[in-house]
Amino acid sequence: MAQQSRAVVLLSGGLDSATVLAIARAAGRETYALSFRYGQRHAVELDCARQVAATLGARRHVTLDIDLRAFGGSALTADIEVPRGADPAREGIPVTYVPARNTIFLSFALAWAEVLEAPEIWIGVNALDYSGYPDCRPEFIASFEQTARLATRIGVESGTGVRIEAPLIALSKAEIITRGLALGVDYAITSSCYDPSPEGRPCGGCDSCQLRARGFAAAGLADPLLRRFGASAQEHAP
Amino acid sequence: MAQQSRAVVLLSGGLDSATVLAIARAAGRETYALSFRYGQRHAVELDCARQVAATLGARRHVTLDIDLRAFGGSALTADIEVPRGADPAREGIPVTYVPARNTIFLSFALAWAEVLEAPEIWIGVNALDYSGYPDCRPEFIASFEQTARLATRIGVESGTGVRIEAPLIALSKAEIITRGLALGVDYAITSSCYDPSPEGRPCGGCDSCQLRARGFAAAGLADPLLRRFGASAQEHAP
After folding, report:
1. Which of A11, A41, B84, B141: CA 20 to 30 A from A22?
2. How high is the ipTM of this complex?
3. CA–CA min distance A64, chain B (Å)
4. CB–CB contact B111 A156 (8 Å)
5. How far apart are CA B193 and CA B50, in angstroms?
6. Across the interface, which of B65, B110, B134 has its CB nearest the CB of A100?
7. pTM for the whole thing?
8. Dist. CA B106–CA A74, nearest whole Å
């Protein structure tokens, strides 16, 4: 029953989704990694996704082109400046929120899962460090799973549909890092920064860099990505 | 409050979505039409969508490229033959079903609605003539609306989110046609066929051609699209 162990894994090239891919693999899944070129200003993360998929033994890795810039509306896809040095735990939804992004990503994952007859989609959303994004909350994930059951042939015919696995949802960043290291994730080939240099050097000041730095600090570990770029990136880290 | 009257309208170039655009306009909405080049074998319907959007006064019309062929799995996007002459009312989900298509289309519409601060998305799904597609059922639409409320900034901040309007959901094809004609829809510039000629001549035998022909027959009207192509297309119609 090899079919039953298939899983589509959303892979951004960041720390969280790399960890999810490692967890899915450790759970015995045959993984199908899915990334998106969605008009984000940094292509670095897609290079990272490719390396992560190869390193962690994904059966296939597909990168889809979808032009979210046609709509604009986010600092990650439009000409709005990425904020640096802000408190990532502040109230409200940050400008780096991309409208409906996880709904779109999960919808494509659902299409592929249905074609593969894969009963699971894995996604690296995280509710504790979620940085104010509505589509990273557990209630959104549960609702999407219900919609997916009603939307698809697999849902109509099996009655259960496609499960959405979000193994990081209740973990802290430090717990995610510890878990990933135990499973052999090489975080030096992941990228978390919202606005890295073309070579992939993190800015150190955006929400995502701050959350990553605090995670490594809380785990009592050095970030191997910063080691790759020497000390300069760490200068900006809190 | 011009903002309140904005609506994103999913526009395929077919008969149903053209009617929806006309209904939204008649209801006073400022319409933003959204079409997809999703790897369908026929580009004819996108030409139709452009003409329909222009004729019915859409404020903007965006056509997004999304490559559903990367996944395959449907007669509309992969190398599977479109069935002709079958009974469209037969049991089961037809091979022309495109996995998760309406979920994907609604997700993009949601992203645009959020950027536009449009409180509504209009879609031409139809449960009576729905031809076996799970993602045309009212329970799917209701569930997507709930997911959309949880997914978005507009949902978190307004508590209501984006409404999904499906005005055709309980109408017969004949009722849709009658309604559209009363609102000035020119069905000669719409395309319903799953496998038309490059010039847009309908095959007459696929499920969609049959449902369209029965709709015009039940309404006691001639299909102006067939008039455009003379009698030959009608030869195949039931």
Report:
1. A41
2. 0.86
3. 7
4. no
5. 17
6. B110
7. 0.88
8. 19
